[in-house]
Design brief:
Elements lengths: L12 H11 L2 E6 L7 E7 L2 E8 L2 H14 L9 E7 L2 E7 L4 E2 L8 H12 L26 E3 L8 E4 L2 E4 L6 E3 L3 H12 L4 H9 L8 H20 L3 H16 L6
Helix pairs in contact: 4-5, 6-7
The site of magnesium ion has 4 residues, from loops.
Length: 259
């Protein structure tokens, strides 16, 4: 069943009971939209609002366990993890609820400096021992991308909540390790997808201490183009074709494209 179709009332009773032990009575639930988890919602509870995220399938459960372990290392950058439950075949995490909205990555958005600040803070976090997946595995093992920094790697605007004057980074399921410059490079590409010119997106990246503008970035731009072109060839959905076009533009701009 897709996540959007599962209601609080559909969850197994054993799981509901285990949640209630932490939160007290649950008086309402608002499903989060566009999620990968089996269940994600803000619960109104006797102890206030709590964001919960759960998985009833082993693969997602493993990625939630990874997320739970990782957020412990990024306080102030991610929402605080309040509890973790294993019950009725489900894993469920309870987070501090962040009152906010998804970030706006378009040119001129006031959210961009907040995003830069959060990414700068992340750049200073030592790599937790359990984070062993390498970011370069998605890019043909590109050696320049390898490194020992903690990377989020999935910072699309719905994984960044703007709350007051802070950008809070959520959804650490894809956290992995790699060179520090990879996070801003990936973000620069997301900014292009949100309407920035290549120059505009690179300028934003240059504002970050970990940005690198050399051969490594060139290699990333080539690998990024190759992987989006392959994705669009395999499954030519509009957004994939658009991303492949943008990736191509980036490589043309850096005089890397052959065609
Ligand atoms: N701590 C939180 N407080 C409030 N809303 C949140 C919180 N964490 C995530 N969300 C919202 O729920 C959505 C789904 O959560 P996310 O962790 O991204 O799960 P998924 O892995 O299913 O994408 C996010 O896009 C965001 O809108
Ligand atoms: Mg998400």
């Amino acid at each position: 069943m897709p996540a959007a179709d599962i209601d609080w009332d559909d969850l197994p009773l054993g799981l509901v009971r285990a949640v209630r032990k932490h939160t007290g009575r649950v008086t309402g639930s608002r499903s989060a939209k566009g999620v990968r988890s089996d269940y994600a919602a803000t619960l109104e509870t006797a102890s206030g609002p709590v964001f919960v995220k759960g998985a009833g399938q082993p693969l997602f459960a493993a990625s939630l366990a990874h997320e739970a372990a990782t957020v412990a290392f990024v306080p102030g950058i991610a929402p605080r993890l309040l509890w973790r439950i294993d019950a009725a075949g489900w894993v469920m995490l309870g987070f501090e609820h962040v009152e906010g909205r998804h970030a706006d990555y378009r040119p001129g958005s006031p959210d961009l400096p907040l995003l830069a600040h959060a990414v700068t803070q992340l750049g200073q976090v030592p790599l937790p021992e359990h984070v062993s997946k390498r970011v370069e595995r998605h890019y043909n093992g590109l050696p320049a991308m390898s490194g020992n920094h903690l990377l989020h790697t999935d910072l699309h605007p719905a994984n960044v909540l703007v709350s007051g004057d802070r950008a809070v980074l959520v959804d650490w399921a894809w956290a992995c390790k790699g060179a520090a410059w990879v996070e801003p490079a990936m973000l620069a590409f997301r900014l292009m997808a949100a309407g920035h010119s290549v120059e505009g997106a690179e300028d934003w990246g240059r504002g970050l201490a970990t940005w690198q503008d050399g051969t490594a970035l060139d290699e990333f731009v080539i690998a990024n183009h190759r992987s989006w072109r392959r994705a669009a060839d395999l499954d030519p959905l509009d957004w994939k074709v658009r991303a492949a076009g943008m990736a191509h533009q980036w490589s043309v701009h850096r005089r890397l494209a052959k065609d």
